[in-house]
Task: structure prediction
Amino acid sequence: MSIIIGVLEQGMIYAMMALGIYITYKILDFPDLTVDGSFPLGAAVTAALMVKGMNPYLTLPISFAAGAAAGILTGIIHVKFKVRDLLSGIIMMTALYTINLKIAGKANVPLFSLENIFDNKVLDSIVPEAAAPYQTLVMILIILLIVKLLLDGFLRTRSGFLLRAAGDNPVLVTSLAKDSGKVKILGLAIANGLVALSGCVFAQWQRVFDISVGTGTMVIGLASVIIGVNLCRFLPRVKDTFAVLIGSVIYRACVAAALQLGLQANDMKLITAALFFIILCISMDRKKKVKAHA
Amino acid sequence: MLELRNINKYYNPGTINEMCLFDNFNFKVDTGDFVSVVGSNGSGKTSMLNIICGSIDVDSGSINIDGKDITREKEYQRHTYIGRVYQNPAMGTCPDMTILENMSLADNKGKKYNLRAGVNKKRIDFYRSNLRQLNLGLEDKLHIKVGSLSGGQRQAMALLMSTMTPIDFLILDEHTAALDPKTAEIIMELTDKIVSEKKLTTIMVTHNLRYAVEYGNRLVMMHQGKVILDRNGSQKDNMEVDEILERFNEISIECGN
Result:
C-alpha cells in the first residue's frame, strides 16, 4: 500500500514537470533542456526560503516565477541571439547549476525539521487523525488539479491559441501580425515555471534539497509525455494534459517495479535510457521532426 | 500606393557565388490594382513578394506604402495591413487545430491575443456563412482538425483566413500552383470575388498564364530582376496567352535554352 501511495505521490509531483515539458515538446516543438536546471531551481529557491522561515505555501508561486524567469532567458538566448533551441537550453541548464548552488548555499540542504506544505500546524489541526496517511497525497492532488485546470483554461484562451499556433505553424503567427519569437518565450516561461513548481513540491516532499535532483528531468518528462499521449490516443475525449498525468504515474510505477525487482538505484539511469529509447521507437514520435506536412 | 524604390539585393555577397538579383529595381502598384506577375524561375517574382512582406531584407533601397517608409518594419509588423497566401497550403493554417479554432485565430488578427476565450461563440454563425460560400462543406466540420483536410480545402481556408480582417494588401504567392486544375479554378474564382468585394490591392505571382491574362487589371512579366513587360487597363484586356508565351520564348532564347 505504501508503495502505491509513494508511486502516486511521486508520479503526480513529476506530472507538473511533465506538463511543462508537454508545452515545450508537444506544443512548441522545442526540445528544452533548461528543465534539468529549472527543476532544481524550484527546489533551491524553496529550500533557501524555507530555511529563512517563509510560509511554505508562498514558495509555490515564487518557485514558479523563478522557473519562468529561467525560461524567459532561454527564450531570449534562442530568439534574440539566434542560438539553436537545444543549445540555448544547454547554456541555461549549465548556468543554472551554479546559480542553484548559490541560491541554496550548499549542495545539500536538509529540510526535515521545517514545516512544509504537507505537514504544518494548521493543516494537522484540520485533518482528522484517520486521514493523516493520505494527507500528503491529497495535497499533491489538489495542487496538481489546480495546475492542470489552469493550464487547460489557458490553452483555450486567445493567448493559448497563439501559443499552439506558434508550435504548429510559426508562419501563421507572423501572418497574424504577431512576433512568433515572443510567443515562444511566453511558452518557455510557462513551461519552466511549471517545472520549477514541480521541483518546489518535490523538495518539500523529500524534505531535502539536493543539487543532483534535476539530472535527467528532461528524459523523465519526455518519457511521461510520450507514454501518456500514446496510450491515451486511442481513448476518445481524453485531453492531452490528462494523458500526461497518467503517463507520469505509469513511468513512476515502472521505476518502482524495477526497484522492487532488486535493481540498484545506480542502474536506473541506464534503464531509463533504454526504456526511453524503446518508447521512442514504438511510438515513432521521432518522425515528428520530419515535417513533411507543414 | 505601394512603391519599391531603387532596390538592390545580392545573394551570397562577398563570395564566389555572389548573385545580383535586383539592381536598382523600381516597382509601383496603385491602390486598388490587381497585378498578375509572371516570369521564369529565378526571375525575382517571389523575392519581390518577400521583400514587400519583409521576409527578406534588402541591401539598399526603400519600400513605401502611401509615402510611408516601411523598410525598417519587421515582417510581423507589416502583416497588420498585409495578408499573404502561400504556394504551400499548409502555410496558411494550423494543422493541429480545428477549423473553428483556426477561424477564431484569424478573426482576432489586429486585436490582442489575451486571456479572453479563444473561440467567440457569437461569431460561429459568421464563420459558418463564410465557409459556406466555399461550397466545400466545411461549415459542417467545424470541429475537425485542419490537418485532415485536403490541400484545396486548406488553401481555401488560408485564403479566407488571410482576408477575414481588414487589410490593405493581398499577396498571393503562386497560391494555386499546388492544386489540381479544378480546385485551382475554384480558388481563383474565390480570390477574384474576395478581392473585388473587399477592394484589396493585390499582387499575384502565378505560373498559370491564363489566370494572369484573365484576372486582374495589370500584368507584369519579370526576367532576371527586371520588369520586361507591363500592361494595364485596356492594353491588358486585349492581351492573349500566346503573346506572353511568345515573350517567354524570346527570353529563353536569350538565355540560350
Summary: Strands of chain B lie at 2-11, 19-29, 34-39, 60-65, 68-69, 82-85, 169-173, 201-205, 218-223, 226-232. Chain B touches chain A at residues 74-77, 79-80, 83-84, 86, 90-97, 101, 104-106, 108-110, 112-119, 147, 162 (CB under 8 Å). The mean pLDDT of chain B is 91. Residues 95 and 147 of chain B are 4 Å apart (CA to CA).
